[in-house]
Amino acid sequence: MYKPAVVVSLFAALLIAGSARAQTYGGDAPVCLHVFGDLEGERMDCIFSSFAQCQASAQGRPATCLTNPYFAQAPSARTGRRVR
Question: How far apart are CA 60 and CA 76, in angstroms?
Fold first, then answer.
């Protein structure tokens, strides 16, 4: 039979490994291209500075453009204030 400490350790290891892969978005650009399907593979490319740029890349492909929820803008861009 399994010992409780071993079972708990394995369960904790699975939780830690799963949470390391949870974020699929990068924080480098405001727009992401979500590519899906077997032909190109499932992935998230967060490299686009505008929806128009992303949509041009997505045209004719199994893909869609999304707002990147992890994009970190400079504080001055969010508040409208200049940084000295």
Answer: 37
Measured torsion, CA atoms of residues 69, 40, 48, 79, in degrees rounded to the nearest 10: 0
Could you say which residues of the chain have pLDDT below 50? 6-8, 10-11, 14-21, 74, 76-77
Q: Which of 43-47's residues contact partners 24+ apart within 8 Å by CB, and which partners?
A: 46/70, 46/71
Residue 44 backbone class (left: φ over 0; alpha: ψ -120 to 50; beta: rest): beta
Select from 45, 49, 71, 70 the least CA-distant residue to 58: 45
Alpha helices in 1-84 (DSSP H): 4-20, 51-58, 75-79
| DSSP-assigned beta bridge partners for residue 43 | 35
pTM: 0.57
